[in-house]
Amino acid sequence: MEMRAVYAECLAEMMEKDRHVCVLDADLAKASGTLALYKKFPKQMFDCGVAEQNMASIAAGLSSYGFKPYIESFTPFATRRICDQIAISISYAKQNVKVVGTDPGISAELNGGTHMSMEDIGVLRSIPGVVIFEPADAVQLRAAMPVINDYNGCVYIRLYRKELPDIFPADYKFDLFKADTVREGKDLSIFVSGFMTADALEAAKLLESEGINCEVINIHTIKPIDKEAVIASARKTGAVLTVENHNVIGGLHSAVVEALAEEKIPVCALGVEDRFGEVGKMPYLREALGLTVENIVAKARKAVSLK
Amino acid sequence: MSCDMKQICKDIRSDVVSCIGHLGVGHIGGCLSVVELLGVLYFEHMNIDPKNPKMAGRDRFVCSKGHAGPTVYSTLAKRGYFDRELLFTLNQGGTSLPSHCDMNLTTGIDMTTGSLGQGFSCAVGVALGAKLEDDGARVFALIGDGESQEGQIWEAAMFAAAKKLDNLIAFTDYNKLQIDGTVAEVNDIAPLGDKWAAFGWNVIDVENGNDCAQISEAITKAKANLGSGKPTMVILNTVKGCGVSFIEAMGAGNHNSPLSAEQTAAALAEIRGE
Looking at domain B3-272, does it have CATH number 3.40.50.970? Predict the structure, then answer.
């Protein structure tokens, strides 16, 4: 099942239970998978048209009236385009608005560089009070949605739209502020978020055959990062690699390095090397921007060699 | 206009000058231009209860030109939301009265504003919320003329008309001045009424936006538009720095200006008619 379909199902369940849960679009309901909800919930779905700034501040106004709005768009338009509205109308004003950005990083594929957010986590991470969540699979997303809905404050959901392989078991228990260890190991800690979690696990298997035993920790919540889990794993293995579909500046790598600032542990980065995206399909983009399993393996070897 | 309203506005105007003068600097021009609007709204038109500031179904006021905070605070104090003495903590570290309105700090403030353009969209969201709750609340929103250069104002204008938010009554403080000069010179917004009408709003032009009777009459008309399916824009032709001749004479320079003890005393004397 596509991630956006899971997301829409969760929204429908929440809107059914609570008439104050509502969704605002900026002419991308179809892309977000929520267009069909307009018929079923006409008093909880609002299309603002192509006007993201207005959408964000209207959501803040609705929140001040007791509503629980979700605003949706492609990641660059849900974040960097409206970072002042998220900062002031939403977070500074302590409003309960959820921001949903779809097609993060290279997953924007054929929409190309203009629609590829390599900086969205960095932009939002520097705004006080914004929680940043990126699901790795449908199981995690489904478990997270009710928790995020109950959280009173701004949460950014960085949502890959298409189908992803399952990482987590059916009985998975979600804690918004606790990282998930998906593979235990002793030689290297790989911290990873989003769809690249599957790639990190594949790389860990390959590394096992070389005698490098990797721990893979899914950081679904990049802010506030589970510092305790990051430090504990890093101390255990003595070497760290971060893996992300985002600029290595400002995102998961930065968050992990900040958490480990007082530790004498090498931290290598696999991510987008401070450049814009470009048009193409995923296999091309993975190669072009270096987000491949082979590169994870190479960076992992380097991190271990720095011990 | 009742004698009472005249006195109320005199008191609000004095308090605006006093609290900005006490600090020594502030957004004096754009605060003085909206004194009559705030007085008329809070003393004649809004369904509010100062003893129950979070009353369900109350009318809301959103000061999108957030830098007019001192006028809102002076009005709220006069209306009994909090003690007048609090006004003299304006902009002091740790105060509950910051230069720009903050709903989480100040009793009676319904929306955090200050980043121009955003408060107006928030007000539109509040009006939508009130419609959905069907609780009879009206939303009054104040924007600046310089603020009207923000694209977000027009995004909100389009949405409010499209969603038929006739419980929204907005005001433009059309004092024709902004920080860098006259609005006409910097980036003209004229013809302002035509623009709002073209966006599908009822438009009411108030010739003297510092005249309580004219403002009150316009609000009465705007309230009658409930049920028309159209939001209302009341354009207040105001004077920036209104009521203090030397501040009026500063022109664009009065947006955020120092105010010495001597100037404060002279301004207060003029307001009191001494």
Answer: yes
